[in-house]
Amino acid sequence: MSPFSSEPMTNNDGEPVEDAPCRSVRRRRYRHKTSTSSAPLCQQGDISEGAQNTMPGFDFDRLPQDILCHIHSLIPLRDAACFACLSHRFLRSWRCFPNLTFNHETFSVNLFEGISYEKSKKLVDIIDSILQNHSGTGVKTLTLDVSTYFKPITADHINNWLNAAVKPGIIEIAVKFPVHNRPMFNLSCSLLSCAGSSLQSISLFFCAFHPTLRTGRFKSLRSVYFKFVHITSEELGCLFSSTVSLEKLEISNCDQLTSLNIPSHLQHLTVLNVLFCTNLKKIEIYAPNLTTFDFRGRPMKILTSNSSHLKYMTLHGSLFSGMIQYARTELHSIASNLRTLTLASAQEDFIVPMLPVKFLHLRNLNVYFDSIRFQSYDYFSLASFLEACPALESFYIWAGEYDLAWKDPALQDSNADSLQIRRIPEFRHANLKKVSINRFFPSKSLIELTYLIIENASSLLCLKLDTGYGFDTSGMCRRMNKLDVIHALSAVEVAKIYIEGKVPSSVKFNVLEPCKRRSDCEGGGEEVEEDEIIWKWVSNGRFILLCL
């Protein structure tokens, strides 16, 4: 099972994100959240006579209007609408309410249960009423998510809403357009241009956006996020030419892009994410102060003019092959000063070569083998990265999916003493402290890599072999079927036979293994779905399995 999502796989310290409540607990919490906020959204017309006196004990008339507006602006839109029903002064504040957010939480829509056409139409009418009765001034942020459950929405609705909310002074616009609309909604550049002097953040999902050289300047624009946006390479270049303040850029699933050129005048740009743009062939980065680069797609030509500040990088090729080979052979010319590097690949046709080029500053390396094709892969070749990274402190491997039918012939008729182990003469590593191998399975090359680390990493403090699925990037625990548990138990046995006796006493050694009976587990009582096996962290500091 893949460990990936659209979210980052690691934090800036280079460690994979782990540990959160299990899936069933998350669902219970969501149901509770939606059930406790199911009251209908108040309408402006709900103010009754004398409503301004319905809150005894505090006289709002004593507060200056600007303070009242500030208090009002700090609460969510749903509650702010209800406050507008209590006082005429709050009603005046409501008509220039600064933070407009319309999504499933605003309307207490349970995404697991869906929504009827009639209710969708009613919610569209509510949005229409709120925005048409808004004064059009004072809006600072607009978040509009009508991507999946608002079928009655038309292009006219969206045009009217945006025209009502997007005015000079707005800071943030985030709009998820309906995915069922064909053709895509075409967002007017002139609409955004009217807010060009104040706009700091643009987030667009599923629309067409075609800026030109005549598009106004966005002198305050700091963040741009496009996902499933129809925009060409030339049009994106026009947007870049209209701003100098950009700090973060994320482009995802924008398939009309064939090349991406980040110009040198974007001197404030520090974060660049380019995700799954299938027709992209080349990336050129001339922004001089980039620190974080997350790329997800097939290996391609990446050029940088000055990467001295680039410290954190992800090359995610879980849908493609050759990313690990690409990183070892090409990455040094792209970014040689990295501190944290995360790699993912779906297939590797060649082993990682030994090369003289080094990453002298790399501290954290995470490698994900994201498919079942790696059972016979030579993991020992990853020693090339260890040799190239003398300052490395943390090394994490996700070894791939289990092929339950595959067995390493080298382990069939051998034991810890008779197994022929490869070694690298004169190899030493003075800084490696923490090593974690997730999805550890019976593989001679994995054992050889582990031996190499045990015998030559003089600063090693912790070695962890996890035979299970671990956690996905959202922290949700992964399911294991019975065959996977059997395979995990086999991996535990191999770790005990070949590795446990070789680990120095100064190294904390952990093998995360499944328990055989549910009665062995501590910390129960959580709701567990049928046929689900879940890793749990218990009080003695070990991960164990709940096995049904």
What are the main properties of this structure?
elongated, 548 residues, disordered N terminus, 12 helices, alpha/beta, Leucine-rich repeat, LRR (right-handed beta-alpha superhelix)
Topology diagram in text:
Elements: H1 23-35, H2 65-73, H3 77-83, H4 88-94, E1 99-102, H5 117-133, E2 141-145, H6 155-165, E3 172-176, E4 186-187, H7 189-193, E5 201-209, E6 223-230, H8 233-241, E7 248-252, E8 259-262, E9 271-275, E10 282-285, E11 292-296, E12 301-304, E13 312-321, H9 323-334, E14 340-347, E15 364-369, H10 383-388, E16 394-398, E17 434-438, H11 444-456, E18 462-466, H12 482-498, E19 508-512, E20 534-537, E21 543-546
Helix pairs in contact: 2-4, 5-6
Describe the structure in your own words.
- This protein has helices at residues 23-35, 65-73, 77-83, 88-94, 117-133, 155-165, 189-193, 233-241, 323-334, 383-388, 444-456, 482-498, and strands at 99-102, 141-145, 172-176, 186-187, 201-209, 223-230, 248-252, 259-262, 271-275, 282-285, 292-296, 301-304, 312-321, 340-347, 364-369, 394-398, 434-438, 462-466, 508-512, 534-537, 543-546.
- It is of the alpha/beta class.
- The chain folds into three domains: 9-37 and 311-548, no CATH class; 39-97, no CATH class; 115-306, Leucine-rich repeat, LRR (right-handed beta-alpha superhelix) (Alpha-Beta Horseshoe), CATH 3.80.10.
- It has a 16-stranded parallel beta sheet that branches. A three-stranded parallel beta sheet has the order 8-10-12.
- α2 packs across α4 (88-94) and α5 runs parallel beside α6 (155-165).
- It is elongated and about 85 Å long.
- The two termini are 20 Å apart.
- The model is unreliable at 1-8, 34-39, 44-55 and 515-548 (pLDDT under 50).
